[in-house]
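hey so i finaly got around to running the thing on Pre-mRNA processing factor 4 (PRP4)-like domain-containing protein from Wickerhamomyces pijperi. pasting the sequence first so u can double check i didnt mess up the copy paste, my clipboard has been acting weird all day
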Amino acid sequence: MSNNTVSLDNLTVDTNYETSNGVKVSDFLQSLDLKRKQQLMLVPTDDEDVRQMLLKHNQLQQTSPDESKSDRRERLIQYIQQNNIDLSAEIQDQEMGNASDQEEDEDEEEFYTPASMELVEARKNIITYSSQRAKQRLAIQYKQSQMPMDQILPYRHSQTSKAQNLELSGSNLISSKPMSSVSVNPHNHAQLLAGTWNDGVYLLDQNLETTSHFSAPQGKISSISWNPTQQDRFIVPSHDEIQLFSTVDLSSSTATPMVTFPGHEDRIACVSHHPSGQYLASASFDKTWRLWDINASQELLLQESHSKEVFALDFNGDGQLLVSAGLDSIAYVWDLRGDKSISILSGHIRGLHCVKFRKNGYHIITGSSDGSIKVWDLRSQSSCLETIPAHKGLISSLGFIGDNDEIMYSCGFDGIIKFYSSDSWVKCSELIGHQGKIMDCQFFQDQDTKNWKGFSCGWDRDVKIWE
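ok and heres what it spat out for the 3d tokens, dont ask me to read them lol
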């Protein structure tokens, strides 16, 4: 290429200039992205509705015999986006037609399913609980906001130093199968649960010595959750059902669950306790997530939203919101006090494998098999605040550590654990020690020493201690 030739690859994109109408290009592009998200929320999830919409646009005949429901919905989404179809106008016309039909037949069946009395009661409990938690959180945030400026920077540096000082302090070969999940007892940091692929669950002490191994849970155990209010209780997915155990009953490999929660139609990828300890949520390969009442051993809510497998979910600290993330590369934010998604987080180009709320209540992080972490801000139309090219390959786990989650951490199939400042989202350190893919990691402040500590596990069948 001659010196007089301009490379298009090096041209910068300026979106801050205004059009002749006085509208900033950046604002216009943001409005287009918001409109695209709103359109996506209107795409039906019921296969019969998808078929009817394809039929309306003369696209149903293109259905192949082996086309799945999710593939059919994806094809509808692509058709809508390629042809700039206004779904809101179509739905409005359909609703007007439905209204006319209802006038002709007053006995027309309702188009929605009323919530059960148990779900209504659960929502009331969640409203009361989350209101109290939000009040406490805001009081803490206000107190933190009063910190003098000359103390803020040294405090942030101290948090970064804690992450940078972490190093490998122990390792143990636990199983003959890959280790897939780790979870520290929040009430007793000397207890650690480690899940495997097809070799059950191990209860380990703080030195990674096995105190119990039980094989009741079956399949790939990619998630374990301790009850936040009952120190001996935890839940584990066993293929398509959830099993509740107590550490008191783990004296032998034949330990049986206290309660089981059947209902899912495929592998359960993630389980999580509501902060109150009264409820739990599960995400499954059957493309649904479900809410359960633990004490009643009852399913309260089945939510269909994703077009592919739902792989991860998380409650916010207050307990009124839940975020679900799927292999369709989309995360949905749900208000548990109602029955609708209040936000769609789309932007990843491949499936999502992990998701986490920050303590502040408005930041969400998502990790994808595209190797990136995205930071989302619910205060600004759920826009993407930052995109971090974190790992070479799939991101398997992420989280926060610090009094106010000042540090974000992640691990992936590249065998590296990385730490980032939650203020600038700049990497501050990394840990290397596993041979192969890391499946899960968890970092926390030790109850006794107040130092930061962490555990990780992977395909090398090891569980490692970092402190």
